[in-house]
Automatic annotation (TrEMBL):
Designated gene of the protein: putP
Organism placement in taxonomy: Bacteria, Pseudomonadati, Pseudomonadota, Gammaproteobacteria, Alteromonadales
Catalysed conversion reaction: L-proline(in) + Na(+)(in) = L-proline(out) + Na(+)(out)
Annotated keywords: Amino-acid transport, Cell inner membrane, Cell membrane, Ion transport, Membrane, Sodium, Sodium transport, Symport, Transmembrane, Transmembrane helix, Transport
PANTHER family named among the record's database cross-references: SODIUM/PROLINE SYMPORTER-RELATED (PTHR48086), SODIUM_PROLINE SYMPORTER (PTHR48086:SF3)
The protein, known as: Sodium/proline symporter
Source domain of life: Bacteria
One Pfam family per UniProt: SSF
Subcellular localization, as worded in the UniProt entry: Cell inner membrane; Cell membrane
The protein's role, per its UniProt record: Catalyzes the sodium-dependent uptake of extracellular L-proline.
Length: 503
């Protein structure tokens, strides 16, 4: 690795730490300031931080790798994600921003659930917190693993050292700057990812002599690479169920705490349409760029005799072959940005849940803002240490569970979030039942074998579909069968509607 590459990466790390220091200096030293940025995010920061925390290394490694292997048939996931993200901005964002403020200034998702249904038993808060802490600790570990492997494969450093560098930088700026630091660094990281995903496929096309020559090369390699309905690697046509499974990834957006918390933190509801336009433009261009990186990268590798051992490294390979070391370092920083943006968001959401939903709710009900901020910072370190320990073990069971966490969150929280914002008659009991039903359905779909070969129901259809549908059905049925007799929730919902209609 040349000096220019290291120099570019050093600049990136210094910038991330500098943003953390800036957020530390400007943040309000209270729970809302540390855990939700004081609800002061601008539309651009909301949009790009939501996108960057969402996409992770999947954007720069997973999508190009899938396109490299299977061709255009992999685009169905991207289509589903785009539609799901758009609906999330349209339906959830404005309502959640208003309702969380009305519902006793809720600053975490379990906070909102408890206040929305005025749950004096606190069962709903505990249940939601357990789901968040479990899945996000594992999710964070997955991101740390990705960082360790990137340093190992790209820089020749040990896997363990890569873990410590990745986690160390993220923990430092999250520890000091809290939510504002995470959001501002995600904003910068989102810009890095955007530029990189426009630059790399454009240069590849230029090197191959233009778009027509690139497409001709792909036709010669395998005509099925350009088909939406045929898996190029197997040559088999995609079934209707397979396409629905790929599109259903979009359902996950409604239940992802690290994404929808941005809607809670935006400056005002009036900023949401601008955030939606910026966010969807960023997502559309970035997904197209990621897809074209994999597809055009295949043409480049084939034409130039470049050996690609792992298709998911195609972005890394192209960044080192086609650019000088300074630009190559910037492109590697884009991958780190994708990884770190998600780690930091998940780290803070988990820390927020431990602080607000465990410590302040059960261990010290009279905790001051200063105490909550201190506990939040300590929890950032604790969660990071646990994530590193899991990453050092490289537990394949853990990592396979993490790969299904998107479906788990989508099924456990997605229907609950949507229905709670749209239907006045939803009840506390139905919310508890919905979380349990969605989570259990997803776990059964993932782990219970259906034949002697050990195949599970996930091999038939993506688990988020039955999980989401079962959770939604249970919420509606329980609300109808066991309605609440008091009208406190109705009064709160009517107040929410008045504010919403006046915006």
């Amino acid at each position: 690795m040349e000096f220019g590459t290291y120099f570019s990466l050093a600049i990136y790390f210094v910038a991330m730490l500098g943003i953390g220091l800036y957020a530390f200096k400007t943040n309000e030293e209270n729970a809302s300031g540390y855990l939700l940025g004081g609800r002061k995010l601008s539309a651009p920061v909301t949009a790009l931080s939501a996108g960057a925390s969402d996409m992770s290394g999947w954007m720069l490694m997973g999508v190009p790798g899938a396109m490299y292997v299977s061709g255009a048939s992999s685009l169905w996931i991207a289509i589903g994600l785009l539609f799901g993200a758009w609906l999330n901005y349209l339906i959830v964002a404005p309502r959640l921003r208003i309702f969380t403020e009305i519902a006793n200034d809720s600053i975490t998702l379990p906070d909102y659930f408890e206040n929305r249904f005025q749950d004096k038993t606190r069962i709903l808060r505990v249940l939601a917190s357990v789901v968040i802490i479990l899945f996000f600790t594992l999710y964070t570990s997955s991101g740390v693993v990705a960082g360790g492997k990137l340093f190992e494969s790209s820089f020749g450093l040990s896997y363990e050292l890569g873990l410590y560098i990745t986690a160390g930088v993220v923990v430092t700026y999250t520890f000091f700057g809290g939510f504002m630091a995470v959001s501002l660094t995600d904003f910068i990281q989102g810009i890095l990812m955007f530029v990189a995903l426009v630059l790399v496929p454009s240069v590849v096309v230029f090197e191959l002599g233009g778009i027509n020559e690139t497409l001709s090369s792909l036709e010669q390699i395998n005509p099925q690479l350009l088909s939406l309905f045929t898996n190029a690697s197997s040559g088999e046509a995609l079934s209707f169920i397979a396409i629905i499974s790929l599109l259903s990834w979009g359902l996950g957006y409604f239940g992802q705490p690290h994404i929808i918390v941005r809607f809670m933190a935006i400056n005002s509801v009036a900023q949401i349409p601008a955030a939606r336009r910026i966010g969807m433009t960023w997502m559309l261009v970035s997904l197209i760029g990621a897809a074209m990186t994999g597809l055009f990268g295949l043409a480049y590798a084939s034409n130039n005799g470049v050996s690609i051992n792992d298709p998911e490294t195609i972005f890394i390979v192209l960044s080192q072959l086609l650019f000088n070391p300074f630009i190559g370092g910037f492109l590697l920083a884009a991958i780190l940005a994708a990884i770190m943006s998600t780690i930091s968001s998940q780290l803070l959401v988990t820390s927020s849940s431990l602080t607000r939903d465990v410590y302040a709710s059960f261990l010290n009900k009279n905790a001051s803002d200063a105490q909550q901020v201190l506990v939040g910072r300590v929890c950032v370190i604790i969660v990071a240490v646990v994530a590193i320990i899991l990453a050092l073990g490289e537990n394949k069971t853990v990592l396979s569970l993490v790969s299904n966490a998107w479906a788990g969150f989508g099924a456990a929280f997605g229907p609950l979030v949507i229905i709670s914002l749209l239907w006045k008659k939803m009840t506390k009991l139905s919310a508890i039942a919905g979380i349990l039903a969605g989570t259990i359905t997803v776990l059964v779909w993932i782990f219970v074998p259906i034949n002697e070969q050990g195949e599970t129901l996930s091999s038939i259809i993506y688990e988020i579909i039955p999980g989401f549908l079962v959770s939604a059905a249970v919420i509606l049925l329980v609300s109808k069968i066991v309605p609440e007799k008091h009208s406190d929730n109705d009064v709160l919902f009517e107040r929410f509607l008045q504010v919403l209609n006046n915006k």
